Amino acid sequence: MIIGVPKEIKNNENRVALTPAGTQELVKRGHTVHVQSTAGVGSGFSDEQYVSAGAKLLPDAASVFAIAEMIMKVKEPVEQEYNLIRKDQLVFTYFHFASYEPLAKAMIATGAVCLAYETVERIDGSLPLLIPMSEVAGRMAIQEGAKYLEKPLKGRGILLGGVPGVRPAKVLILGGGVVGTNAAKIAAGMGADVTIMDLNITRLRYLDDVMPKNVHTIVSNEYTIREMIKDSDLIIGGVLVPGAKAPKLITRDMLKSMRPGTVLVDVAVDQGGCIETCRPTTHEDPTFIIDDVVHYCVANMPGAVPYTSTLALTNATLPYAIRLANQGWKKAAQENMELRNGLNVIQGEVVYKAVADAFGLGYTDVKKFL
């Protein structure tokens, strides 16, 4: 198969979809890999490393899209890439369709096969290609939240871990999944007073067992959220509904009960966000303030630590990419339920129900194509 790796062009997105090591694994299996020049530089990989691994360099994205049967990306295509995608071309990347209707309609119009990292799902419900970036984003959420609690950045002026004789910051984490667990680890390690809220009591029992004593667990409901946010200093939104929009757990009216300088970090923003007032921001301009509450809503948080993120992501995606390249998307999806779950749009038809439901689009059972 001919595989293409274009350079990411989203604001401050420095990750790359394939490392030189991954390139070598594909090339030694008889596949051809075309990489756009400088695509890996932001993650610390030079053009020379890709060439040494067997890749062929191309000067621009248009050349990569034109030749490739499978495009490997990190972030969803942006508007200037829409017209580069061809009918029947396989695009393997994060899409997060349910949060952005223009992207969904554009990909339907291309007639391409869109296989989304975020909906590749195992039989146990885990999301193997979302997990590594959720781990990064969960840990970064505390790192960034702690920074924006500083007074010069309009926060409350609180040190996350406090000092002897002064209480630490109160951190509220909505969601006890991968994001929430990783956020809690870092916040607890920094000495904060941490509370995780989730609907799943079994999950809360597990977290209560494994987390240190400064992490508490509470069952999530609207009443309790309204009470908890009144004296929380840093609130992390880490709720995920696979392939669908996140539920709004913090509404506009709730901001008035928060103290000035409270910081909100909505890690779910690329799926529409679980905080009503959040809108996607960039690393260039990461925050905005509503009712004296600081909102940090960067949609590609792991892009700020591209070396770590690229290695973590490609460790997870490479086995799937090899299977797709060896078998083609159709046979791979027939034989592998995880990849079948990743199919969102095929040749102009939506085959992932949550995406169809999000925008009232027609839904086609994926079996039609397999």
TrEMBL record:
Fetch the InterPro entries from UniProt: Ala_DH (IPR008141), Ala_DH/PNT_CS2 (IPR008143), AlaDH/PNT_N (IPR007886), AlaDH/PNT_NAD(H)-bd (IPR007698), NAD(P)-bd_dom_sf (IPR036291)
Q: A GO molecular-function term, please?
A: alanine dehydrogenase activity
Q: Which E.C. number(s) belong to this protein?
A: 1.4.1.1
Signal peptide from the UniProt entry: none
Where does this protein hold substrate?
R15, K75
In the UniProt entry, which residues are flagged as the active site?
Answer: H96 (proton donor/acceptor), D270 (proton donor/acceptor)
Q: Which GO terms describe its biological process?
A: L-alanine catabolic process
* EC class name: oxidoreductase
* Keywords noted in UniProt: NAD, Nucleotide-binding, Oxidoreductase
Q: Which CDD domains match?
A: L-AlaDH (cd05305)
Alphabetized PROSITE patterns for the sequence: ALADH_PNT_2
Q: Which residues form the Alanine dehydrogenase/pyridine nucleotide transhydrogenase NAD(H)-binding domain?
A: 149-297
Residues where NAD(+) binds: 134, 198, 203, 220, 239-240, 267-270, 279, 298-301
Q: Which Pfam families match?
A: AlaDh_PNT_C, AlaDh_PNT_N
What domain of life is recorded for the organism? Bacteria
Q: SUPFAM superfamilies this protein is in?
A: Formate/glycerate dehydrogenase catalytic domain-like, NAD(P)-binding Rossmann-fold domains
The Alanine dehydrogenase/pyridine nucleotide transhydrogenase N-terminal domain covers which part of the protein? 4-137
Q: Which NCBIfam families does the entry link to?
A: alaDH (TIGR00518)
Identify its protein family: Belongs to the AlaDH/PNT family.
Looking up PANTHER family in the UniProt record yields:
ALANINE DEHYDROGENASE
Q: What is this protein called?
A: Alanine dehydrogenase
What is the scientific name of the source organism? Chryseolinea soli
Lineage of the species this protein comes from: Bacteria, Pseudomonadati, Bacteroidota, Cytophagia, Cytophagales
